[in-house]
Design brief:
- The complex is a heterodimer of chains A (512) and B (174).
- With 512 residues, chain A is mainly beta.
- Chain A contains seven helices and 32 strands.
- In chain A, a hairpin with a 2-residue loop joins β14 and β15.
- The two termini of chain A are 33 Å apart.
- The radius of gyration of chain B is 17 Å and the shape is globular.
- Chain B is built from eight helices and two strands, in the order ββαααααααα.
- Chain B is mainly α and 174 residues long.
- In chain B, α1 packs parallel to α4, α2 packs antiparallel against α4 and α7 crosses α8.
- Classes of the chains: A mainly beta (512), B mainly alpha (174).
Chain lengths: 512, 174
């Protein structure tokens, strides 16, 4: 290393060598190695298999459907008498083998079976052995990014925090020595969830909450003991058949059918807006969400016989959902085969990035005329504090501004686009993050840095402009600074974060 | 698959037992854990936890080129909670107006002032320094362990050493 630090290097190496020497004389800690005989592991596996089989039989019994009738073909349903302009676009088959559980993530659900309008809590644990040793997205303090108030407390030696969001969702997080445990709740006061989080312990390898510490309004639903959970209606579960319907303009719908499981219905309660009602003579739960002014998403869920039906309808006239519900019926093999198949045994991946290949393949690579002069433009950026740990950033643009929400909660930065997607990073950060806000139609590129040298974000755009914006301090007491340029991602030729002397600290992917 | 173990030993982990792996690497891991935690109790807990986890995964880990890197990474990850607690405690001490020398950990075997200064660094800088001085890892090896670029490691090391030199009043006149 450089001579500049010769003295400190010499001291550091001497201290390191002395520490190693001292350690070499210490006894090593005993490892609690279980004494396993050759037959023990197969016995454990056999016990687990028996437990799973018993569980399946119990579920099957509850649903009054013999196991041998649980052929995925029996989940094939279509919609008859479609409204004018509607058609069936594609189908997806359920699989006999549901998707593999996510390694390193375990889930427990507490609520009221079959009722999405009742109080509900989900506990998730991101183990240290999760892929790459990283927590799952959202499984960290960034989960509190949109909380209006955050309380920090301790659970034994563990640090913990709870917060309440505007839409009445409560989030509590316990940073255990075995990874984060996240509690998400609806229709419960923050104190009840905090009490539950405060009672968290590890029993063997599983986080657990003693029954006496659960809120009175909930009971353990899934699983016992803690395990994996894919709600049947979710993409990727492999447990459901589905048909996708296309209407006129931007209207669309999807019908998903799985084996009846009232836990699935309780799980839906983690969203708000559910009401119990009657639609086309069926008792259903109905939810209407306005993703934005122009996008309306209706979800209708009902159990009929031994099947659960999820119907999601987007941007359709008011009576459309009821008409679709009224006309759901089993598909014949012939008509099912005639529908274009998607997915099949491959679970669907939820969400797509604006940088995904489906977009990139149809978008020409942006270029700039090499003979045209580059025009330097200083662009505007506003930071509007919302709470003491959250602010809104609006980046100006000649065509349309871009908005994101930036938060700093318990040493964790979070950048969220109103349309979904986001970025989180724990402080201290490794260098400078240079990322796209996840929004195709109206995108932005932001830089978030704790590097004290980082001064300016410069973006070269295919219209021949080079846009400059200074990094600004985010919050008092937080070392992070932020800058954003409003420009579509597919028009960006390159971007750099510069020091005051022009040194390039970070760049993507090349800068002309 | 061979790697250099401690004291110049070469060990084939693909064919060796977990016990051999533990015996040949655990002391160095213990040194790393002590550098980051500052006391033997926490360090031994970290090592015990990490190697217990490694034992469960040994059939898989034994096929790695360097299974000790996996253990090292686990120790670094799991030191975070303890790290944050120590930082909060240190901050509380500062708020209460305690003198600087009161924060020196008497359990550090040699040069406690140096290790206390290391543990005051931002966590990622402290990890880089510990891997550099205790484990004698190269910049490339540290980058691989921390999951970042060589340039980031160089930045961490440079800033960490500047801070250490300032805190320990060891800035070179040159």
């Amino acid at each position: 290393m450089s001579d500049q630090f010769a003295l400190i290097d010499a001291r550091g190496r001497a201290a390191g060598a002395a520490l190693r020497t001292t350690t070499s004389f210490r006894a090593l800690p005993d490892l609690p190695t279980p004494k396993r005989h050759g037959w023990v592991r197969p016995a454990i596996v056999a016990a687990l298999v028996i437990a799973v089989v018993v569980g399946l039989v119990a579920v099957a019994g509850r649903d009054a459907a013999p196991v041998d009738e649980r052929d995925p073909k029996n989940l094939r349903y279509v919609v008859d008498d479609l409204p004018d302009g509607w058609s069936i676009r594609s189908r997806t088959d359920a699989t006999r083998t549901p998707a593999d559980p996510i390694p390193g993530l375990t889930v427990a659900l507490y609520g009221t079976s079959g009722d999405p309008t009742a109080p509900v809590v989900m506990m998730r644990w991101s183990t240290p052995e999760s892929p790459n040793g990283q927590s799952f997205p959202g499984m960290g303090y960034s989960a509190l990014a949109t909380a209006t108030e955050v309380q920090e407390f301790t659970v034994g030696d563990w640090h913990a925090a709870c917060g309440t969001e505007e839409n009445d969702r409560v989030v509590c997080l316990v940073e255990t020595d075995r990874g984060f445990v996240l509690f998400s709740a609806r229709r419960l006061p923050v104190d009840a969830v905090r009490t539950m989080a405060s009672a968290l312990t590890f029993v063997g390898e599983s986080p657990q909450v003693a029954p006496e510490s659960l809120p009175r309004e909930v009971t353990p639903l899934y699983p016992s003991p803690l395990g994996q959970y894919f709600p049947a209606g979710s993409p990727g579960s492999g447990r459901a058949s589905a048909v996708e319907l296309l209407g006129s303009d931007t209207a669309s719908a999807a019908l998903t059918v799985s084996w009846a499981d009232e836990t699935d219905i309780a799980y839906l309660g983690l969203d708000d807006g559910w009401t119990a009602t009657t639609m086309a003579g069926r008792s259903v739960f109905h939810q209407v969400m306005h993703a934005d002014v122009e996008t309306i998403l209706e979800t209708i869920v009902w159990i009929e016989g031994d099947r659960t039906f999820f119907l999601r309808v987007m941007n359709a006239p008011a009576a459309t959902a009821e008409q679709l519900v009224a006309n759901v019926r089993p598909a014949s093999d012939t008509e099912w085969e005639a529908i274009h198949a998607t997915g099949g045994d491959t679970p669907i991946t939820e969400g797509t990035s604006p940088m995904g290949t489906d977009v990139a393949e149809t978008t020409p690579t942006p270029t700039v005329d090499p003979s045209a002069p580059i025009t330097d433009v200083v662009v505007s950026m506003e930071m509007n504090p919302l709470t003491d740990h959250q602010l809104e950033v609006v980046a100006g643009d000649p065509t349309s501004p871009v908005q994101v929400f930036v938060s700093y909660v318990v040493d964790t930065y979070s950048v969220r686009s109103p349309e979904g997607g986001g970025f989180t990073s724990r402080s201290p950060m490794q260098g400078t993050a240079l990322q796209f806000a996840q929004n195709v139609a109206n995108s932005g590129l932001f830089a978030l840095s704790e590097d004290p040298d980082a001064t300016e974000l410069v973006v070269l755009v295919s219209d021949g402009t080079r846009r400059h914006v200074k990094l600004q301090q985010l919050f008092d007491g937080a070392p992070g600074r932020f800058a954003m340029v409003a420009v579509r991602w597919d028009q960006i030729l390159g971007a750099q974060v510069l020091a005051a002397d022009g040194t390039v600290l970070t760049e993507i992917p090349a800068f002309g | 698959v061979t790697i250099d173990g401690e004291a110049g030993l070469t060990t084939s982990f693909a064919t060796s037992s977990f016990d051999d792996f533990y015996a040949s690497t655990a002391r160095r891991t213990l040194s790393l854990a002590h550098a980051l935690t500052g006391n033997w109790g926490d360090a031994e807990d970290l090592v015990q936890d990490a190697y217990t986890a490694a034992a469960k995964k040994w059939p898989q880990l034994s096929t790695y080129d360097d299974p000790s890197a996996w253990v090292r990474r686990l120790v670094l990850n799991r030191s975070v909670s303890r790290w944050r607690r120590l930082q909060r405690e240190a901050l509380a001490v500062v708020r209460l107006g305690a003198r600087n020398e009161d924060q020196v950990d008497a359990t550090d075997p040699v040069d406690p002032e140096f290790w206390t200064a290391v543990r005051r660094l931002p966590a990622q800088q402290a990890r880089a320094v510990a891997l550099f001085y205790v484990d004698d890892l190269s910049v490339e090896q540290i980058a691989s362990t921390l999951g970042c670029s060589d340039g980031t490691v160089k930045t961490h090391l440079s800033r960490a050493r500047a801070t250490l030199a300032r805190d320990l009043q060891m800035e070179d006149e040159s």
